[in-house]
Structure formats: structure tokens, C-alpha cells
Amino acid sequence: MNKRRRGEISITHMSGPLDGRTQVFEQPDPGKQRIISIGRRDGCDIHLPFDNQVSRLHARLTCVATPPNSRSDETTIGAMLTFWLEDAGSRNGTYIEKESEPISKRVTLHPGTLFRIGRTWLRLDIPLSFED
């Protein structure tokens, strides 16, 4: 019986009316990516309609799953996850941690890092993986 590794990407709201709420997304399959849109527009994966400092499409969080090394033991399951955060041309910028300047290009985001969209603070949580 083959076991398949599944996993979650979670983002926790750290301020605002959704403070403490966690949104969960499925991790991409190895060799694929998952793009999480963040903004005020209906249809954004992380929808922030209550924050008037957030643009309709404010930022994107990308998760890429790199397959395990093909020469490694065949029992290896899963993939290495890499995260990037990029501003989508927002009016008010996207900020990481305590940086005073908004990001100007795609930046690597590590699990546990806080980032700000408008007035709303969010945190990329440590990814969870589990087997069927």
C-alpha cells in the first residue's frame, strides 16, 4: 500500500477583526507551486475587505514544492517547501516584520515570519504534513 504525504500551509491573522483566525491551504504536489492571493477583492484567497489600506490585489504568497532528490532512498516522502512573498503593485506596500520600508521585489519568507498587508498583520505558520 502506497502512502501519500499531504500537507497544509496555514496563515494566521495576528491583528484586526479576524485576529487569531487561521486559514489553511493545501500544499502543492512536488514539482508544483501554489499561489495564495491576498487582497480586498472578492475571490482573493486571503480576503481582507475590512482594511481600507489593502488594495484589491495587494500581494501574493507563493509556495513551491521541490521534489526529493531522485537519487535518495525510495522511502523518502514529501518535498522541500520554499515560500516567497511579493507585492502586487499595491498602493500602500507590503512589509515584513519590523522593516520600515516595503518590499520592492519577491522575497523569501520563512515559516514563523510576520508580514503586514495594509494595517493587517499575518503570520506564515510552520507547514504541517501528514500521511494517509
Q: What are the salient characteristics of this protein?
A:
Tumour Suppressor Smad4; globular; 132 residues; 43% strand; five-stranded mixed β-sheet; 11 strands; mainly beta; six-stranded antiparallel β-sheet
Helix content: under 10%
For the residues shown, what is the average pLDDT? 88
Strand share of the residues?
A: 35-45%
Question: Could you please say which CATH topology applies here?
Answer: Tumour Suppressor Smad4
Largest sheet: 6 strands, antiparallel
State the domain count.
1
SSE string, helices as H and strands as E: EEEEEEEEEEE
Q: What is the class in the CATH system?
A: Mainly Beta
Low-confidence stretches at least 5 residues in length (pLDDT < 50)?
1-5, 72-76
The chain-level structural class is mainly beta
Over the alpha carbons, how many angstroms does the gyration radius reach?
16 Å
Write down the overall geometry.
globular
Ends distance: 11 Å
* CATH-level-2 architecture: Sandwich
Number of strands: 11
Tally of helical segments: 0
Provide a compact summary of the structure.
With 132 residues, the protein is mostly beta strands.
Structure description:
This protein has 132 residues and is mainly β. It has a single domain (5-124), classed as Tumour Suppressor Smad4 (Sandwich), CATH 2.60.200.20. It contains no helices and 11 strands. The strands form 2 sheets. Strands 1, 2, 7, 9, 10 and 11 form a 6-stranded antiparallel β-sheet that branches. A 5-stranded mixed β-sheet has the order 4-3-5-6-8, with no helix packed on it.
